[in-house]
Amino acid sequence: MLLVAITFFLSGCQTQTLKPQPSNSDIPVDVADALEIVADTPEDIVNAPEDVADVSADVVGEMPQQTQPSSESASNSNIAIYPAAQKIAEKIASNVFIAWSELDSDDSTQAATDLIAEAYQKTEIIAQTDITTEAIPEPIIELDLWQLTVANYGLGKIENARITPHYNWYNKHKKYMHRVTTRASRYYHFMLHTALDQSLPAEIALLPIVESGFDPFAYSSGRASGAWQFIPATGRAFGLKQNWWYDGRRDIVASTKAAHKYLLQLHKMFDGDWLLAIASYNGGQGTVMKAIKRNKKAGKPTDFWSLKLPRETMNYVPKLLAVARVVAEQAGTDTLNSIDDEAYFKLVDVGSQIDLAQAAEMANITTDEMYRLNPAFNQWATDPQGPHHLLIPIAHLDRFKTSLQDLPSSKRVAWERHKIVEGDSLLRLANRYHVSVDLIRTINNIDGYMIRAGKTLMIPIASKDASAYTLSAAQRVINRQLQIGQTQASQRIEYEVKSGDSLWKIAKKYKISIKQIAKWNKLSFKSVLQIGDKLNIWPRSSSKLASAQRKVVKKVTYKVRSGDNLSVIAHRFSVTVKDIKKWNQLLKKYLQPGQQLSLFVNVTKLKQ
To answer: Is 563 exposed, middle or buried (0-12, 13-18, 19+ CB in 10 A)?
Structure first.
C-alpha cells in the first residue's frame, strides 16, 4: 500500500508520522463502518515505488526541525487508514491535483482532514485545518416601509403613454405625496404586511393613495367610504357591517382584509391578470367583462390597455402604476414621509361598549387619535352590539390594558335614567341624547315605538360634551359646514324638504349644482329625499352681494386727535367724508380734539 510505504520511509528518516486519532464521534457512520487497521510490514516498504520515496524525501526536507522526533518513537508507530480517504492520498501521491470540493463530497470530518494533512506533510496545511472558519453574515439592511414596498413589487415594469400624465402630476406635487404618506403612518405597516402575507403584489398596498389619500373618513358622491372606498352594497357583500353606530367600510383592519379578499377573487376571475382585477375593483367586474366581450366579438385584444372602459376606470390603473413609479423613485428621500417597519397599533378586545373619550383618557391619547385609529365608530361610543375592539397605539398599550382591567363593564358607558313625560317620543329622546331609536328600544325591551308617560328609560349618554368627540359623524359634518361657511360668499340656510322636491329642483332654485348639495350633506346623486329632511344650502350670490358679504364691517369709535380733519380720517379708515357725515349727523363744521366719531369700517381694508 502506497501510504504505508510513505510512512515507513518517513520513519527511516527519523520524521514523526502524524497519526490520526479517529473516534466514532468524529467520523460519519459510513466511514466508521469501513474503518480498518493495517499493520506496516517490510514487504510494503520493499515494493514502494521510487517516485513515492522521492516525494517523501522532498517533503521531509521542508519540515521544520521541531517536528522531527527520535527514531525510537518513530519505529513503533501504526497508521489508521480510511479506505474512503485512501483514494485521495493515492491521487496526491500520483501528483494529481485535488480540490476541496472533492473533500466535501466525501463527507468531510476532522479525521479525513488529518489524513490529507499526513499525505502532504505540510505544517501550514495542518495549521489551516485546525482553524474553524465561520461565515461572517452580511449586515442586515433595514428598509423603511416604502423601500420594503418597492422591494416586493409584483406587477412588473409597465410602460404606457397613459401612465405619463398621472406620473407627472404625482411627481410634481411632492408636498401632496409627503402629506399622504404622513397620513398613512398609522395604517401602512398593517396594510403592507397583510398584503405581503397573502402574496399580493406590494403595489396593492398603495391603492389607498389613489382611492382616498389614506383618509379613512373619505366619502365620495357615489357613497363610497373609507380608505378603500367601498360602496354600501359591496361592503355588505364582504361582511362590513354598517349601522348608526358603526361603519365597517372605515374600519382599518376589517376593510383592508375585505379589499384584499375582493382583489384576490377578481384576480382569480380574470385568470391571474392583475391589471384587469384592479380595474374591476374600481369599475366593477361586470363592466370589465362586458368590455372584454365587446373586444372579443370585434377581434381585438382583451388586455386592460385595449379595453374601452368608463373614464374613471381607464385612469384608475395608470394612476396606481404612476404612484408606484413615484414611490420607487422617491423611497428613502424626504419626498415621502419615512415610516419604520414597525407596527403602530394593536387590536384590543374591550369586551363591551365603551365611551371613546373615556377610552382615549385610559390610553393617554387624544380623542382625535382614538377616532383616527378607530374611524369606523360613528358616534361617541363603540357599537353596543359589537365589534368590541379598539386599535390602540402600541406605545400606550400597557397603560390602556391596565386601565381596562380596573374598569368594570358597567362603568364603561354613562347612563341616564329618563322619566317619560307627556310629548316624549323615541325619536325626540334619540335626538336629545344622541343615540339611535333602536338602541333605546333594545336596551329597554320595547317591542314597538310607543312609550308611556311616567315610565323610566335607561339611556346611555356621552361622558363629555358633543364637541369633545372630535371626529364623530355629527362633528365631522359640523366641521365641514364651518369650512364651507368660511369659503362661501353667502350665508348657510337650512332647507326643509317639501313634497315634490328633488336635488335637481333645489339646486336650480338656489343656482347651485347637485354635486354641491350632495357634498355639503353627504348624499349621493341618487339619494331619495324624504319630506321633512333638513339640507344645508349655501345659495349662490351675485358678484355685488358676494363682494359686500366678504367685508368684515365693524363699528369703531374714533377719538379725534390734534391735526385731524375729515379727509385725513376718511383716508385712514378707507371710507368717504360723506359716509362720516351720514354716520355722525350732529357733526359740527370743525372737529375738536377729543371729539368722538362713530365709523363703520371694513377691517379687511384698514391702512397699515
So the answer is: exposed
- Give the CA angle between residues 534, 540, 543 to the nearest 5°: 155
What is the pLDDT at residue 193?
97
| Domain regions of the chain by residue span | 2-129, 145-330, 414-456, 488-546, 551-605
Q: Please state which CATH class domain 414-456 belongs to.
A: alpha beta
| Low-confidence winner among 79-93, 216-230, 409-423, 478-492 (lowest mean pLDDT) | 79-93
Instruction: Give the range among 21-35, 133-147, 206-220, 506-520 with minimum mean pLDDT.
Output: 21-35
Angle, CA of 262, 266 and 268, to the nearest 5°: 120
Per-residue burial over 118-131, b if 16 or more Cβ lie within 10 Å, else e, is: bbebeeeebeeeee
What the block records as the C-alpha cell of 450 is 310607543
Averaged over 286-306, what is the pLDDT?
A: 96
* Domains 414-456 and 551-605 alike in fold: yes
Please identify which residue in the block is written with the cell numbers 344645508: 536
* CA nearest to 379, candidates 410, 353, 401, 352: 353
Q: What is the C-alpha to C-alpha distance for residues 522 and 224, in angstroms, rounded to an integer?
A: 11
User: For residues 391 and 360, is the Cβ–Cβ distance under 8 A?
Assistant: no
Neighbours of 519 (CB within 10 A): 15
Strand, coil or helix: what is 419?
strand
**Greater confidence, 146 or 30?**
146
Q: Which CATH superfamily is domain 551-605 in?
A: LysM domain (3.10.350.10)
Q: Which CATH architecture does the domain made up of 145-330 adopt?
A: Orthogonal Bundle (1.10)
Contact 310, 283 (CB under 8 A): yes
CATH number for the domain whose boundaries are 488-546: 3.10.350.10
Which one of 43, 62, 211, 329 is the catalytic residue? 211
Tell me, yes or no, if 211 is annotated catalytic.
yes
The answer to whether residues 146 and 331 touch, using CB atoms and an 8 Å cutoff, is: yes
- Cell numbers found for residue 267: 384576480
